[in-house]
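Box 3.1 A note on notation
Throughout this textbook, protein chains are presented in two layers. The first layer is the amino acid sequence; the second is a token string describing backbone geometry. Keep the layers aligned when reading.
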Amino acid sequence: MNYTKKKKTQGSIPQKRHYEHILWKLSKILRLRFWFLATRTDARILSYVYLLATCFLAMMSLGIAARFCSVNLIFPSLGPTIFMQFYAPSSPMSSPRNTILGHLIGCLVGLVFYSVILKTGGIPGTLSIVDVAILGAAVGVCGTIMGITGLLHPPAASTTLLIVFGYLGSPMNILAFSLASVFISFEAWMVHKAAGIKFPLWAPEAGDVGPQFRTKLGHLDLSKKSGSLNVEDIASRLASRQSIK
């Protein structure tokens, strides 16, 4: 009897060890994640390799999707967007909300000034004095709206230029561009999630990110909402001729 019990006990051990062995093999997948590799190798070199691989993957997948859907999804201003989302994923400017809505602002502003060029008798893509003034106004308005709304995404300014120049004039192209920005943002979220890197699904973490100015007398942070000012803030405002309340 004792021998039989011992044999049954020994027979149950390999099954448990086999189960643990499978879990151990599966857990090795985590060793491919960025946070684990960064503790085992040069994090700086790893970040460059990660940037190279992810940017390549993002453009390839976008191109494959465009070919499969027979719709143009590749636009010049998406290149900087891809770079930002994989080079600085923790930046609020790289978040999906800022990316998608920022490009939407760029599209709407571009359409408005594109119609202005047409109504003034101008030809999109030319560099007459009037057209250059309209281009400058378009970029300025786009940047101002993004600054006021907090939907900061620098590549959106190039989206405005593309539309004003007439490269994205048709509604179909603008719709395809909007879908491409959503596709890229979702892909960035999936890749960062798999790599163990924090990246928001939509909005960035809470924080008031405003314009930053550095002067010879100090640093001025315009995102601060408090009424108290330190010496550097006062000196900076004096240097930039802003009122001190």
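Strands lie at 212-215, 218-221. Confidence is low (pLDDT under 50) at residues 5-9.
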